[in-house]
Input
Amino acid sequence: MCTDDGLVSVLAANHTLLHWRAMRTLGDRGLAEQAVQETLLRAWRSCAKFDETRGSVRTWLLAIERNILHDLIRASVARPGDSGWDEIGELADPRHAHPDFSDGLVDGLLVTQLLEALPVAQQAAVREVILRGRAYQEVADDFGVPVGTVKTRVHYGLQSLRKLPQCA
Output
């Protein structure tokens, strides 16, 4: 990761997730991009300290970004500028941030692309249980299979997704 090529691959694998999370937290495209850039800059500066035994690069980047997001929120509260107190409370509350349409579209395309790598039975089980939030028993009844089969398909589907190379 401490090379130009390493940074490019880390960026390609994680930019979408980092940007989505920043948009969801901050609700501002410019601040979100600033947070992603600062995350990558800090990761680049401290790449020699990265310990693979403590977690994945993605987990490490998300921890760095979390700290940056907290810093940005604190800074906006400390120096509100033209914001009223009600807006500051909303800025600090991620429930009020709204990613734009294109972020949702990109996330949907990414999920679809990842699911296509799974066998059809696992795709269907993951889509129904994980993405649509349906109960295992309900999905099993719809598919006409035992509930244990649905649980197994979801388990192995998620396990396979974790092993896939990450897309941007």
The mean pLDDT is 78. The CA atoms of residues 16 and 168 lie 6 Å apart. The chain has two domains: 4-98, 103-163. The two ends are 17 Å apart (CA to CA).
